[in-house]
């Protein structure tokens, strides 16, 4: 048996034949019984793997879930527009880095879904992207944020304001 030590990618775990503890029945309930979730758990608790699993699910990648609980529960397997941002792997002690990451990520999405010069504000730009994705897919958008606390933890107790 191969154990996925340090692997946080659902598709890699499944495709490479690692042991996977099936919690997809719970994921199905999570998705179908609510709208917005904020998950705050201790380090090494599986949050990134959960985000990766949700991303594959909302992308409609049914083949990855073959034989898992969700395979018996889900009947639609619709593809949603998924917007995933992961703050891991960046040093946020450098001034302006958070703005650079968010601006660059939204800029990439604007290339895919259309950009308007109407908005300077990053929040309004992202809202516009979400509206365009909704128009294209005819479905609600899924926004997944991983390692949301990394920028805060990087500068905590450093004197930055």
* Span between termini: 48 Å
Strand proportion, as a percent range, falls in 5-15%
Number of helices: 7
Write down the Rg. Answer: 18 Å
Mean pLDDT across all residues, rounded? 91
Please estimate the helix content.
Answer: 40-55%
Which structural class do the helices and strands define?
mainly alpha
Name the strands of the widest sheet in spatial order.
1-2
Shape: globular
Tally of distinct domains = 2
Oligomer: single chain
Record field, number of beta strands: 2
Largest sheet: 2 strands, parallel
Instruction: Give the topology string: H per helix, E per strand.
Output: HHHHEHHEH
Low-confidence stretches: none
What does this molecule look like?
Helix 5 runs parallel beside helix 6 (122-137). It contains seven helices and two strands, in the order ααααβααβα. The chain has two domains: 1-79, no CATH class; 80-161, no CATH class. The protein starts with 9 loop residues before the first helix and ends in a 6-residue tail after the last helix. The protein is mainly alpha-helical and 161 residues long. The mean pLDDT is 91. A two-stranded parallel ribbon has the order 1-2.
Key words describing this protein structure:
globular, two-stranded parallel sheet, 161 residues, mainly alpha
Produce the secondary structure layout.
Elements lengths: L9 H6 L8 H9 L14 H12 L10 H5 L8 E5 L10 H17 L8 H16 L4 E5 L3 H6 L6
Parallel strand pairs: 1-2
